[in-house]
Amino acid sequence: MATIVVCAGITMISVPLRRLTSEKNLPKISVAQSSFDDEHIHEIPGILRIKLLAPLESLRISTSDGELLWEAENLMVGEEEADVQLLLLDDALELRVEADFGDESHETALFLTVLPDGIEEQTHYLIGSGSLDEILHYEWDLH
Q1: Residue 112: pLDDT band by 50, 70, 90 thresholds?
Q2: Any idea where the domains of the chain sit in the sequence?
Q3: CA-to-CA distance for 56 and 73, rounded, in angstroms?
Q4: Distances from the Cα of 143 to the Cαs of 39, 43, 91, in angstroms?
Q5: CB-based burial of residue 19 (10 Å sphere; 0-12 exposed, 13-18 middle, 19+ buried)?
Q6: Which of 47, 53, 63, 102 sits CB 3.0–4.6 Å from 115 for a disulfide?
Q7: N-term to C-term CA, the chain
Q8: Which among 78, 77, 115 has a CA at the least distance from the CA of 95?
Q9: Domain 38-139 has CATH 2.60.60
Q10: Confidence of residue 127 (pLDDT cuts 50, 70, 90)
Q11: Distance between CA atoms of 95 and 125, rounded to whole angstroms?
Q12: 27 Cβ contact partners less than 8 Å away, ≥ 6 residues apart
């Protein structure tokens, strides 16, 4: 008896589901083609590590297309890390670093190390005082 009830229930549901999922009712969607294929793009988990030689009032690290990866305030001298997802395009990564050392009049440095999972780490640095805004370019040979 239970089997008959289950079969009857499935039959009753299958007719409306067929109408909802039939191809003639689906809207036609056009998808824009990307200028890069998946072979040129690698999304890799990684770590960003900064080393500060002077206290930092604010830090903002974003990708070249503006995606925010890390934002922090009132960082002290030393090292800090953040886990991020890195999007490598043609085995390269560009990061925009905006750092504000406040009223610091002496020249100082900020070191930014990128540690992609399974790839060698690379470190670049910014030197200056006050507010800094620079693009750092990292590149790996993944082939």
Answers
A1: very high
A2: 38-139
A3: 7
A4: 11, 15, 9
A5: exposed
A6: 47
A7: 63
A8: 115
A9: yes
A10: very high
A11: 12
A12: none
